[in-house]
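BUG: 3D viewer hangs when loading the predicted structure for this chain

Environment: internal workstation, default settings.
Expected: structure renders.
Actual: progress bar stalls at 90%.

Input used:
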Amino acid sequence: MGFNIQINCTLEICPDTGKHFYYNRFEKIYDMPQVIPEQYRKYVSMKGKHFRIYTNLITDDIVTSVENFVDKYPKWSDIVEDPDYNEDSKIWNEDKHDQFYDALKWFSKQNICYMISWF
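Structure tokens produced before the viewer hung:
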């Protein structure tokens, strides 16, 4: 069985208008969030056992905000020291680790709250 990780956001539904919205601070925003830049789209849904190392180092839950994920993002040395990393060492490296972090930082800076979950 594989390990899947994905980033998403939840839009609420206004009971008065029936329109979808999200909050930016305390203001309801009825426009769609910004389109994900092309270079970050590959991080929206991924598979790989190496992501379990990240999630185990960040939280015991199966979902957290991307902002929390960024705040607790492990160092590359923490990833390669884990015995489970050896299985995925041919497909995941420090450059990809850094690119993933850059993508997560972009998501965390948006006005809508992006969540990251895994199963």
